[in-house]
Amino acid sequence: MSSQRINEVVNFLNLEADMLDQGEFDNWLTLWHPDGRYIVPIDPHTDDFENTLNFAFDDDAMRRRRVQRLYSGESISTMPRARTIRMLARHRILVDTPSRLEVRCAQSLWEYRKGKSQHYVADLHYRLLPQATGFLIESKVVRMLNSDGYLSSIGYIL
Length: 158
Description:
Elements (H helix, E strand, L loop, with lengths): L2 H19 L3 H5 L2 E10 L12 E5 L1 H13 L10 E14 L4 E13 L2 E16 L2 E11 L14
Parallel strand pairs: 1-6
Antiparallel strand pairs: 1-2, 3-4, 4-5, 5-6
């Protein structure tokens, strides 16, 4: 695997994280394939997302509704909007074919809202579809380290 390929992937994933941190949710939606899934499972070991309970199991319509709620203030958990910083590390390309990439990395997310700071850590697993100008996200699975414990709020996109 070339260092150019890993750099392209890391740059794309950093772009996604920056868009989310800066509240550029409409732009974030353009990174997704229309059939893509955004998944935050409760069980950190499951791969059967359709038959288990998840914090999020969003298709295109659900992602758009989630973004609409973030912009509109309809959800009390989003007002005021949390300030976040996502830090990605430990990128590993698991599959690299002309039609699909699978990437695993770690995310440390700091949230600051209403004078309180919270920290979330997760393993991320992406399926990316190569395009002429970059990638589209086919799936993003966020496996939070404390997903089976108490989570006080998740009013934004991990």
